[in-house]
Amino acid sequence: MSFMSNSKKFIEEFGPIQLDVLKEIGNIGSGHAATSLSKLLQKKIEMNVPGVEVVDFDQVMDLAGGADKEVVSIFQRMEGEAPGSMFFLMPPFQAHHFVELMTNASEGFDNDAGMAVSALQELGNILSGAYLTALCDFTELDLQSTVPSISQDMVGAILSMGLVELSQVSDAAIVIKTSLTDRDGGEGGFLEGHFFLFPDPPSYQKIFSSLGVNEGD
Amino acid sequence: MIKEGQVVRIGIGDMGIVHPPHLIRTSGLGSCVGIVLYDDIKKLAGMAHIMLPEASLAKKQGLKRAKYADTAIEDLITALRGAGASSYRLKAKLAGGAQMFQFTSNSDMMRIGPRNVEAVKKNLQSLHIPILAADVGGKSGRTIEFNPETANLHIKKVNQGESVI
User: Fold this and answer.
1) Which of A177, A175, A197 is nearest to A76 (CA)?
2) What is the DSSP letter of B68?
3) Is B32 a catalytic residue?
4) Domains of chain B by start residue, with CATH
5) Which of A31, A105, A134, A195 is the most buried (most CB within 10 A)?
């Protein structure tokens, strides 16, 4: 089998079938996340068609707006049979907006950082809970997520955390990216956020075999 | 002061060298460390954006050398000497190595920032390259820019403005 050759680059071993499987995971996961968010906010939340791209590390940052760009992120480790890192990124004003919608507060979260962090953690739990439940149902793998960690900082500083495991085997990353939007606009403008899923390198094989897809297909 | 200087951008896991009037910059350092080595007489500077402490951590062959503290420093020295710098005059400035997230689990990965800083310091020490300034650790991301003319390292953090070391 092709994955036996250690000199080959990790990511390049994946063919169109593997990439389709990963796309489907993004699709199912964020579809469920969008549904739970709709229920929570009582708003229609849409999901875009997920993108799966094989890119170098700088391009990962570009997909999220550039290494310098300031974002609010909800980061959770996925634990269990196929560990990985999961990020939900949004521009700071969107995070304010989420917090307002969730807490019915009109002030931004500078005034009550504790409340805002709790609200964002809750958002992370709901989104990743839905995402992971869908992923578990689809793959029949056992997965749990850690307590969400909230940070407001530069895209590069945040997403590079998701590349630490991968960088030990590859100079490229597979980005499973999906976006959620609230297209009815409404008074507060629309909501927007992006999921980034980075399975740890050994997890790819577990995900593929759980779905009956072999490397080299 | 800077005449038609350009900013050379160093990507994640990459390196490069520069001379005046150009500047050299890398963006969004989190747990990664930005290493600057420079010769202040020849006005030459090199920068690397490293992600991991040592090349032996690589589980595959043939990956970028500038991604690891040890091989990045080796290659920076080679590149700077090739451009005319004297290795006995090289000095270093560092920034980065933050711990962006606090988790109890998988602490090895979460501690990657401090481990990167330790590795860079250890490697520079064994090569007798003095570290003249460093802004490392903490919980914030950094964007850094070095001016080989003045040997100043400008550091920008979200919500904390800019500092010069």
Assistant:
1) A197
2) B
3) yes
4) 7-164 (3.30.1330.200)
5) A195
Q: Is A163 on the interface with B (CB under 8 A)?
A: yes
The ipTM (two decimal places) reads 0.87
What rounded mean pLDDT belongs to chain B? 89
Question: CA A204, CA A19: separation in Å to the nearest integer?
Answer: 11
Mutation for testing the B interface, residue in A69, A78, A79, A164 having most B CBs under 10 Å: A164
> String of b and e for A123-160 (b: at least 16 CB within 10 Å)?
bbbbbbbbbbbbbbebbebebebbebbbbbbbbbbbbb
**Residue B110: C-alpha distances to residues A32, A136, A200, B102 (Å):** 29, 25, 14, 7
Neighbours of B90 (CB within 10 A): 24
Q: Using a CB-CB distance cutoff of 8 angstroms, which residues of chain B are in contact with residue A66?
A: 27
How many Å apart are CA B66 and CA B52, to the nearest integer? 10
**A155 three-state secondary structure:** helix
Among positive and negative, which fits the CA dihedral B1, B5, B6, B10? negative
Task: Give A133→chain B minimum CA distance, Å.
Answer: 21
Q: Identify the pLDDT of residue A132.
A: 83
**d(CA A42, nearest CA chain B) in Å:** 31
CB A143 within 8 A of CB A80: yes
Q: Give CA–CA dist A102/A88, Å, rounded.
A: 16
pLDDT per residue as tens digits for the range A51-86: 787 888 888 898 888 999 999 998 888 888 888 888
Domains of chain A as residue ranges with CATH: 14-209 (3.40.1550.10)
Which residues share a beta bridge with A35?
none
**B146: pLDDT confidence band, cut at 50, 70 and 90?**
very high
Instruction: List all residues 6 or more positions away from B15 whose beta carbon is below 8 Å from its beta carbon.
Output: B46, B47, B48, B49, B66, B72, B75, B76, B79
